[in-house]
Specification:
The complex is a heterodimer of chains A (234) and B (383).
Chain A lengths: L1 H11 L5 H14 L1 H35 L1 H16 L2 H7 L1 H5 L3 H25 L3 H9 L4 H31 L12 H10 L2 H29 L7
Chain B lengths: L1 E9 L5 E10 L4 E5 L6 H8 L7 E6 L2 E2 L5 H6 L1 E5 L10 H5 L1 H5 L4 H14 L4 H4 L9 H13 L5 E5 L7 H18 L2 E6 L2 H7 L2 E6 L2 E6 L1 H6 L4 H7 L1 H4 L8 H4 L6 E2 L5 H11 L3 E6 L2 E7 H6 L19 E3 L4 H11 L3 E5 L5 E6 L3 H9 L1 H11 L1
Parallel strand pairs in B: 3-8, 3-9, 6-7, 7-8, 11-12, 14-15
Antiparallel strand pairs in B: 1-2, 1-4, 4-5, 9-10, 12-13, 15-16
The chains are: A mainly alpha (234), B alpha/beta (383).
Chain lengths: 234, 383
């Protein structure tokens, strides 16, 4: 996605200097400040809502998948298939699937995309907890729920958090595409910019979304460290 | 007490892991299961706490069928130590020790008291170790905590699945000593799985040798060494161990039992008569079941009975040198030489008098150990 935007931006700026484009971009940041703020807000919703719902679905589903093979196969399978569909195609698919255009279908498409990293990390995080620890837990008389709560979840928490982080960063990028089906957000500037062949507008969408991704990655990285149990830190 | 009744375990792929096991492990006994890998020893152990369910047969603990208990209750009342140690890495030493107390809802205060008590039992300073994480401990320390974790709620039965298999030989030796000392203090029924014969001989009260899911021999370590049931057992023990020096025999195997006994206020003349009658050169002096000392013929002479016929046995300079029944004869002989006494009292691990080793008998003991058959013949002639 970024590559795509970047290529367009580069073609557009081919007959202008980069300095010139940046000047025009900074100008735009000042003059379209109100629009930028709204777009940024919309963009954050496009990330927080799908990722938030994805967390609520993927973690319990991932846990169930570690318990029941009947859940594991379809859940992990579907999530994998979902991830292979190109993001632009998935978003575009919302229209023929009958979700129409606007924010709602954008949320749904992004949700499907957000689930996989969290689901996969929850599943592998829990299944990769040392089997001897599980045997010890069972041998000491923990029920399945106690084992999950006291042993498996604390130990796989960093891995689950890493899944949430990956998911969030991916969705910040992918959410740019939501503009194609009228989902709003920072992508709207890019789509308009591409249409009008205005590199400053493209940059107005691309730069804030890139910064947003970097900030999210950093903050969630710290959070990941913070939730890592002390005994696991080297 | 753990009783196996016709216990059989057949896995889904139809391999028979345990085949018709009948065995009783006594209360307070240290039972070691040993055998080549795949002999069913670990499966047997895991059937006790129902990590594996027997296909048929029953396992009774203190007369109760384990099948009638909720498996979490069963397991919480049974210590479990495994080779991988498996301390929970995200919990401190104190939290690890208190896993089961936690499940049982003990108060914070109770848990702390118990943790301190247990750490002191293995000479780890609670103030230093309680808040450490497992990764900050050496392997040996980790497994000490593993054992304490199993002892937390003071269970009667302790299951140990090759607990020291992953440790270096030096640490292993050290932990063997500590476990023996610990067992003297806590008196648990311990069921211990290993494939290491040295470990089995060192720790066990009795050894159960298994092959292909069946019992091959159940005996004391000494008996297994001396009289292996068949070629398999002999091979498993290894030839070098069987050529034991008579001095490697344990004291309890050869000590003199059924000692003549008197109270301290008995007259010395009676003591002399008793010695002549029983043809021995020592008498155990006990009071209310408590061991006071050994009266040797030697010490009796010092009382000068001709001059003072009213003296009591308690007046004599009694020998109070003791030896543990599980020490080797080598150590007992050393002790005799070192103290220049003529007799040693033999105490069991509970500190109870169980027998004696006397200088006068030493040649007999050694002869019997070296040439068991001839000695037996000689005894028969004599009687």
């Amino acid at each position: 996605m970024f590559a795509h935007t970047l290529v367009s931006a580069l073609t557009l700026t081919a007959n202008r200097t980069f300095g010139e484009s940046m000047m025009r971009f900074f100008n735009l940041v000042v003059t379209r400040q109100a629009d930028l703020r709204i777009a940024l807000y919309e963009h954050m919703l496009l990330v927080l809502i799908p990722v938030g719902i994805a967390i609520c679905i993927a973690i319990p589903l991932g846990i169930l998948a570690t318990r029941y093979r009947a859940v594991e196969i379809p859940a992990i399978g579907l999530a994998n298939v979902g991830q292979t569909i190109p993001s632009l195609a998935l978003i575009a698919l919302m229209i023929p699937l009958g979700f129409g255009i606007g924010r709602r279908p954008a949320y749904i498409a992004l949700l499907i995309y957000a689930i996989l990293p969290i689901l996969r990390n929850t599943f592998t995080g829990i299944t990769s907890v040392d089997s001897s620890l599980k045997r010890a837990a069972r041998g000491m008389g923990m029920t399945d729920l106690q084992m999950l709560w006291k042993v498996e979840l604390p130990l796989s928490f960093p891995v689950i958090m890493a899944g949430i982080r990956t998911s969030t960063v991916i969705i910040i990028g992918t959410a740019v595409l939501a503009a194609y089906i009228g989902g709003g957000g920072l992508g709207a500037f890019i789509v308009t910019g591409l249409g009008l062949v205005r590199d400053d507008l493209i940059l107005l969408g691309a730069v804030p979304s890139a910064i947003l991704a970097i900030i999210a990655d950093f903050v969630l990285g710290r959070l990941e460290e913070w939730v890592t149990p002390r005994g696991l830190k080297v | 007490m753990v009783v196996f009744e016709d216990v059989r375990k057949v896995y889904d792929d139809e391999t028979v892991a345990v085949d018709g096991l009948n065995l009783t492990v006594e209360h307070g006994e240290f039972m070691v299961f040993i055998g080549p890998s795949g002999c069913g020893k670990t499966t047997t152990l895991q059937m006790i706490n129902r990590l594996k369910e027997p296909t048929s047969g029953r396992i009774l603990i203190d007369g109760k069928d384990t099948k009638d208990m909720r498996n979490v209750d069963l397991r919480r009342n049974m210590g479990y130590v495994i080779q991988e140690i498996a301390l929970f890495p995200h919990m401190t030493v104190a939290q690890n020790i208190c896993v089961v107390p936690d499940l049982l809802g003990w108060s914070k205060k109770q848990k702390e008291t118990r943790t301190r008590e247990l750490l002191e039992l293995v000479s780890l300073d609670p103030d230093i170790y309680m808040d450490r994480f497992p990764r900050e401990l050496s392997g040996g320390q980790q497994q000490r905590i593993g054992v304490l974790r199993a002892l937390a709620v003071d269970p009667d039965v302790l299951l140990m699945d090759e607990p020291f298999g992953g440790l270096d030989p030096l640490t292993r030796d050290q932990l063997h000593e500590e476990l023996k000392a610990l067992q003297d203090k806590v008196q648990k029924t311990i069921i211990f799985v290993t494939h290491d014969m040295d470990e089995a001989l060192k720790l066990a009260d009795r050894v159960t040798l298994m092959r292909d899911g069946k019992l091959v021999q159940v005996d004391s370590p000494e008996e297994i060494l001396r009289n292996p049931n068949d070629e398999f057992v002999a091979d498993f023990i290894g030839s070098e161990r069987r050529l034991m020096s008579p001095l490697d025999v344990l004291v309890r195997e050869v000590m003199l039992e059924d000692l003549p006994t008197l109270r301290p206020d008995a007259s010395a003349m009676d003591a002399l008569r008793l010695m002549q009658e029983k043809n021995t050169d020592y008498i155990a002096i006990t009071e209310d079941e408590t061991f006071v000392g050994m009266l040797s013929a030697h010490r009796l002479q010092e009382l000068r009975l001709e001059e003072d016929p009213d003296s009591r046995v308690g007046d004599a300079d009694l020998v109070t040198v003791t030896v543990d029944s599980r020490q080797t004869m080598m150590e007992a002989v050393h002790r005799l030489a070192e103290t220049e006494e003529h007799v040693l009292a033999v105490m069991n691990r509970r500190g109870k008098l169980v027998g004696a080793i006397s200088r006068g008998w030493l040649p007999d003991i050694l002869a019997k150990e070296m040439w068991p058959k001839e000695a037996a013949g000689y005894e028969m002639e004599e009687s």
